[in-house]
Specification:
Layout lengths: L4 H13 L2 H8 L3 H15 L4 E3 L4 E3 L1 H29 L3 E7 L1 H4 L2 H12 L3 E7 L2 H10 L4 E5 L7 E16 L20 E3 L6 H13 L6 E4 L3 H9 L4 E5 L10 E5 L7 E9 L7 H11 L12
Parallel strand pairs: 3-4, 3-5, 7-8, 7-9
Antiparallel strand pairs: 1-2, 5-11, 6-9, 6-10, 6-11
Helix pairs in contact: 1-2, 1-3, 1-4, 2-3, 6-10
């Protein structure tokens, strides 16, 4: 006993219209074809589904039961088709995205907001991860997309620049340097600096080292903290100055003062979105496209000063 989806579709049309003629018009097929498919279905089931007279068509008791089941089958096929197409186009599915601390307070919220607006049915799994760890995770396929500091050089990985933020010093209101519009590395000689740890902030720490070494200054890193909340808590307690890229929007500028660090090369931290070239996850493409569209809308620095 075998029958095809077309048998079910034709039966549902006849059962709902209670007319072979109207069912044929509804389906856009010839009436003899409708009659043939119904006859085939009943023969293969060995059950009469319809009671026919010259004037009317009615459902038998088995026909009423079969109609309920047939509608569910067609609805399930329709859902399955829609989901499969959605998965193939990236409209549905899952996406694992990693970000480092600075991106979490600059580019990532902006990109995720834009992506969710157009792809609400994709489940996003957002994970904090340092840039170096992201590089390994992307290579292994543990994450689909990463936001890393600096470029990613690998034949298996593609990447695009999505944001650039100026290197700044963030200090508490009332600090002795608070009246300066901008600072140089020399201005920070002897100041206790607060940074993220090398394991998580490797690329950023290298940028800081390059900037200070070029100015002939050795930075005095007094404290390290793994979270932005902890960093700003230490500054609020008067324990030092944060070196950061841009200024996190959720913090009060009346309490925390960002000052750009000026040198001949005007240092900026570059953030790239990266992904495997051979990814099989169709949700990656739309996410990257969203990130690239959002990039021109982002400020080149979250600091409004010179």
């Amino acid at each position: 006993m075998t029958f095809e989806l077309r048998h079910i579709s034709v039966f549902v049309a006849v059962a709902e219209e209670l007319s072979f003629r109207r069912a044929a018009l509804r389906l856009g097929v010839a009436q003899p074809a409708v009659s043939r498919l119904i006859a085939e279905l009943e023969t293969r089931l060995a059950v009469p589904l319809l009671r026919r007279t010259t004037r009317s068509v009615a459902l038998t008791e088995p026909g009423r039961y079969f109609l309920d089941e047939a509608r569910q089958i067609l609805a399930r096929v329709e859902r399955t088709t829609a989901v499969s197409r959605g998965l193939a186009s990236g409209a549905f599915g899952r996406l694992a995205v990693a970000y480092m601390s600075i991106a979490a307070h600059t580019v990532v919220p902006h990109v995720v907001q834009a992506y969710r607006r157009h792809h609400p049915d994709v489940a996003l799994n957002l994970t904090y991860m340092g840039s170096e760890q992201q590089r390994d995770a992307v290579m292994r396929g543990a994450i689909d997309v990463g936001f890393v500091v600096g470029p990613f050089h690998s034949p298996e990985i593609d990447g695009r620049l999505v944001s650039r933020h100026r290197l700044v010093a963030i200090m508490p209101a009332g600090h002795r340097l608070a009246d300066r519009a901008a600072l140089t590395p020399a201005d920070l000689v002897g100041e206790p600096l607060i940074l993220g740890p090398r394991d998580d902030w490797g690329a950023f720490r290298r940028l800081v080292t390059e900037v200070f070494e070029a100015a002939g200054v050795v930075p005095h890193v007094a404290l390290e903290a793994t979270s932005i909340t902890a960093l700003f808590g230490l500054v609020a307690s008067g324990l030092g100055i944060i070196l950061f890229a841009g200024f996190p929007r959720q913090y009060d500028r009346a309490q925390f003062l960002p000052k750009p660090i000026l040198t001949d090369r005007h240092p900026h931290l570059l953030t790239h979105v990266v992904w495997r070239r051979d990814t099989l996850n169709p949700a990656v493409g739309p996410f990257v496209e969203t990130a690239l569209r959002a990039a021109p809308e982002l400020p080149t620095s979250d600091f409004d000063g010179p």
